[in-house]
Amino acid sequence: MSNNDSAQAGHPASHFPVIRSIDAAAIPRWLRAGWRDCRTAGVASLFYGACFAAAGWLMYIVFAEAYALFAGLTTGFLLVGPFLAIGLYDLSRRIERGEPPRLAPTLAAWRPNLPNVGLFAALLTIVLLIWARASMVVFALFFTGGLPSFADVVRSVLTFEQPDFSLVYFAVGGFFAAFVFAIGAIALPLMFDRKTDAITAAIASLIACGRNPGPMVLWAGSIVVIVSIGFATLFIGLVVATPLVGHATWHAYRELVEGDETLPATS
After folding, report:
1. Are 152 and 162 in contact (CB under 8 A)?
2. What Cα–Cα distance (Å) separates residue 150 from each residue in 120, 146, 177?
3. Helix (H, G, I), strand (E, B) or coil at 19
4. Within a domain: residue 266?
5. Which residues partner with 257 through β-bridges?
6. Relative orientation angle of helices 187-194 and 67-84, to the nearest 10 degrees
7. Which domain holds residue 218?
8. Domain tally, the chain
9. Which of helix, strand or coil describes residue 234?
10. Residues 242/48, Cβ–Cβ less than 8 Å
11. CA distances (Å), 229 to each of 108, 126, 216, 222, 246, in order?
């Protein structure tokens, strides 16, 4: 074996993950496993949920009078969720290994692969900002009746009271959400677990979605429903909803990506 081959074999990031095929029955398994992790991790898991809820309340307070921007940022909240959930992935991995799910070590779970996690977080942030701006443009062009209240926005979206606005809003938002989900479904758990580079992780996520289109669409829909319940309860439900999704995402990654016994254990 050449020196280059030896060097490549010694780095976990050089191993491209093998993606498995799954069926729709996997989704209930992920959610059940995520719920078990929520119960096992207890306060540590709820801490992250409380952070999501606090972020929701902060956005509401800051943008209370800018409903178009608030709507964009609230929806964009879903886009950066995977990055914020790295601590939950760490908790699930510790539970998986039989280690105590302590909160403190998970607070810096992003540090071992900071450059790649930071690169991916920057991409998500750019998408978030573009979506927030696009949301404001959609409101300006398609929402009639002057400056809407938050109740007006919710009513228009849910009842199709203004069908042009609702259709355009869902189409534009759906495009951004689909793009982020496709590149991020397993990217951050993979970067966290194997120290994979950001490009490899994003490509692996795209392959996972492309190989399992039906189940992954159902999984994305499940995430939207669960997190939407959290929003509908004035963000209080996020205390439980976001840890559930985060832990379940870890189990989705574990089932979608074939284990590699050649990789060293990470701390």
Report:
1. no
2. 31, 13, 21
3. strand
4. no
5. 19
6. 30
7. 21-256
8. 1
9. coil
10. yes
11. 29, 26, 20, 11, 15
- What is the pTM for the complete model shown? 0.82
Instruction: Give how far Cα 167 sits from Cα of 23, 160, 209, Å.
Output: 30, 8, 25
User: Tens of pLDDT along the chain (267 residues)?
Assistant: 434 333 334 444 447 889 999 999 999 999 999 999 999 999 999 999 999 898 888 877 776 666 666 666 666 666 667 777 899 999 999 999 999 999 998 988 888 888 888 888 888 888 878 887 887 788 778 777 666 666 666 676 667 777 887 788 888 888 888 898 999 999 999 999 998 999 999 999 999 999 999 999 999 999 989 988 988 888 899 999 999 999 999 999 999 998 765 444 443
Task: Give me the amino acid identity at 15.
Answer: H
- Which DSSP symbol is given to 257? B
| Inside any domain, residue 205 | yes
Closest alpha carbon to 32 in 210, 255, 214? 255
Using a CB cutoff of 8 Å and minimum separation of 24, what contacts does 146-149 make? 147/67, 148/67, 148/68, 149/67
**38 falls within a domain:** yes
Cα separation of the two ends of the chain: 29
Element holding 18 (H helix, E strand): none
Structure tokens at 169: 């809003």
Q: Any residues with CB less than 8 A from the CB of 175 and at least 6 apart, and which?
A: none
Q: Is residue 263 a part of any domain in this protein?
A: no
Angle, alpha carbons 105-91-180 (nearest 5°):
110
Q: Do 86 and 108 meet the contact criterion of CB atoms below 8 Å apart?
A: no
Hey, which residues does 19 pair with through a beta bridge?
257
State the residue for tokens 């060097």.
Answer: 7
